[in-house]
Every structure is written in C-alpha cells, then in structure tokens.
C-alpha cells in the first residue's frame, strides 16, 4: 500500500484547522504543516496532530510556499489541502480504497473540488484538481496567485471529492499581489492576465476587467476553458455597464472556441426569453440540458445543467399555456431545489391550472 504525505500551508487558522485535520489524519502517513506567520493558536493546535511544523516567511507567492511544503514530504505520494477544506466520511472511504489499490505507475490523481455549496448542502460549483502526486516526479507549482500544479505522465481521474467550507478571508489579497507584480514589471502570462481580469471584475472595476479579458483573448494563448469563461465574464462586465449589445456579442463569441456549454445555452436562452421569443428560448434552454458535461479542469456551475434550465422551461411553457409541460419541468427543477420558494410557488400555481 502506498504512503502519503499531507502538505498544507496555513496562517491564523485556529478556528478551522482541527476540522480539516480530523477529516484526514487517519488517511495519511505524515502531516507537514507550513506556517506562514500565524499569530493565533494555529501552531499549538497542530502540535496535537504532528511535530512536523515548518516556518516559511511569506513573500506574496503561493507557489513558492507550496513548493516549500512539497520539499518537506518524505512518503511515496503528496496530498495537499487548504485549512478550509474537509473530506466527508463518504470520500474518506474512497480515498482509503484508492490508497490500497492505486497502481504505482500513476503520477498524479485528480479529485473533485466542491468549491461552493448551497443552503441545502448541495454542490453549486465544482472543479477538478490534481490532489495526489508522486513525490519522485518533483512536480512544481506555478504562479504567484491562483497557482496551479504542473503535472504530466500517467494521470488518473478519481471520483473522490474535497469539500471547501470557507470562512471570511481577505478579499483584497490576490489583487494586491497582482498589482504589486504589475508595478514591479513582472511579465504576466496569459493565465495571469485571465485571473487578474477576474480579480478586477470581482472588485467591480469593469472597464479595466474588459481590457484585460480582451487582451487575454487576443493573445490566443489561453486554454479552451479559460477562453470560454473569459467571454462569459466579459459579458457580465458589459451587462454591469448597461451595454446589453456588447454583452450578447461576448456570449456569442464563446461559441468560437467549442460547442455550446450549458451556461452559454442558458445565457442565449435568457436573451430570447427577455424578448418574449418563447420558442427560441425553449430551444436554447433545452440545449443546456442536452449538452454533455465536459470532463475538464474548469469550474462546473451545476445550476446551468440542472434546475435552472428546467425552471426557465417551466416558465416558458406556462407563457404558452402548456401547463402539463410546465409542470413536468418544474418537478424536475424541484428534484434539485426542493426548498426553493420560486419552485414551490410555481408548483402550487401550475397544479391549480391543471385542475381547471
């Protein structure tokens, strides 16, 4: 059976570090905690789990910190988590089985990352990340912010999931790092430009975000997934600036990079729905449900391929007074969001129409 080193970088995590370590300590053979300057009880809490605590002077570079953490590992494979991550009981069992059965020629294992959860505990957005990597391959992290692990070789995509349970954090940290790098003349890769544009958008600096999204797309160096997401984010920025024409063009631009993704279909459906072009809207929302979910490393926003198109189709069929169709789609939406008040109210209304 393979052995695993857990590697984490932490700072002031006293409120959540136990939750994380409790969920994983029995699955790994070594715990390495890299502290980047905690001033709370983080280190004291961690000492009850491991003596392997290392100090790292924070330098506004996540990759340097993560690469340092990997250097402390001594076991066959390295597993990384953040302090606000947990592994639920179901996925603890899956990871244990993987530990027993993984072929030693596998270089890296991807796992689902449940990024956000709704009020009912259902996954809202997720993405794949390479979580378990062979130490001997010496894979390196790249990028000061929104860092990624550069892996290659024999890759295995598992169905194990890590759940993100975030606490309040410094929302300005990432953009501060990018702007310091920019001021110092640090060259931005296409990926850096994309993520910097995302930070600008999140800080409501929409004109600057638009310029950087366009620069990213003009470079033609982005991945397919990032190109599509840049177009959709670009549409959001234009919409915030009340430029619906440019917003629509940005959504349509995403079709240049791949077949329509569910989010693109829903956005086009919304465009027709607002114009009361019901049949055209029905076509596009139906397409959202028919598109296969791409097995990529990109963010998957579950609403666009599940309850949202069903709810919109219900509303559209109601417009056409096709109440049976409307009810069927509302029931499909209810399977995903049983407590959503819009769906609950819509169900009462449609049942009353069907009784007439």
UniProtKB/TrEMBL annotation:
Q: Which organism is it from?
A: Lysinibacillus xylanilyticus
Q: Which Gene3D superfamilies match?
A: Spore Coat Polysaccharide Biosynthesis Protein SpsA, Chain A (3.90.550.10), Tetratricopeptide repeat domain (1.25.40.10)
Q: Where is the Glycosyltransferase 2-like domain?
A: 5-101
GO terms, molecular function: glycosyltransferase activity
Give its E.C. classification number. Answer: 2.4.-.-
Name listed for the protein in its UniProt record: Glycosyltransferase
- One matching Pfam family is Glycos_transf_2
Q: What class of enzyme is it?
A: transferase
Keywords from UniProt, A to Z, are:
Glycosyltransferase, Transferase
